[in-house]
Amino acid sequence: MVKLRYDPEARAEVIVGAEYYEACREGLGHQFVDAVEAAVRRLRANPLLYPFMRRPYRRCPVAKFPYSIVYRQDEEGIYVAAVAHGSRKPGYWLDRVEK
C-alpha cells in the first residue's frame, strides 16, 4: 500500500468540514468523513487516475460533497496538500506547499 502523508492543514479541513456538516444535520459529519476516506482509498489504489490541477498536484473529487482531495505522488508516496471546498478561492492551498 502506498504511504500517505497529510499536511496538518488538510487534516484540519476534514475536521472543520465534518463539524460543519454535523451541525447542519446529525450524522452528516460522519458521512462526510466516510466520503473523504473512500476518496483516499480510490486515489491510493490508482494515484495516476485523477487529472492534474497544477502540476504536480492532482484533484480527486469527494463523492456527494463539494470537496476534492488535492495531492501529489512523489518518491515517499502520496502527500495530501488539501481537502479543498470547491467554492473556496482556487489555489488557496498553494502557500502551504510553495514555502
Give the gist of this structure.
The protein is α+β, with helices and mostly antiparallel strands and 99 residues long. The chain has 3 helices and 5 strands. Helix 1 (8-24) runs antiparallel to helix 2 (28-45).
Q: What report would you give on this structure?
A:
The chain is α+β, with helices and mostly antiparallel strands and 99 residues long. The chain has a single domain (4-97), classed as YaeB-like fold, CATH 3.30.2310.20. The protein has 3 helices and 5 strands, in the order βααββββα. The chain has helices at 8-24, 28-45, 94-97, and strands spanning 4-6, 52-54, 57-61, 67-74, 77-85. The protein has a 5-stranded mixed β-sheet with strand order 1-5-4-3-2. Helix 1 packs antiparallel against helix 2. It is globular and about 40 Å long. The termini are far apart. The mean pLDDT is 93.
**Radius of gyration of CA atoms, rounded to a whole number:** 13 Å
> In what order do the strands lie side by side in the largest sheet?
1-5-4-3-2
Please summarize the sheet with the most strands: 5 strands, mixed
**CATH evolutionary superfamily:** RelE-like
What's the CATH architecture?
A: 2-Layer Sandwich
**Which residues sit in consecutive blocks of at least 5 with pLDDT less than 50?**
none
Spatial shape = globular
Which range best describes the helical content: under 10%, 10-25%, 25-40%, 40-55%, 55-70% or over 70%? 25-40%
Q: What is the tally of helical segments? A: 3
Beta content: 25-35%
Q: Report the CATH topology name.
A: YaeB-like fold
Q: In CATH, what is the class?
A: Alpha Beta
The secondary-structure element order is: EHHEEEEH
Distance between the termini: 29 Å
Structural class, by secondary structure, is: alpha+beta
Number of spatially distinct domains: 1
Number of strands: 5
Tell me, rounded to a whole number, the average pLDDT: 93
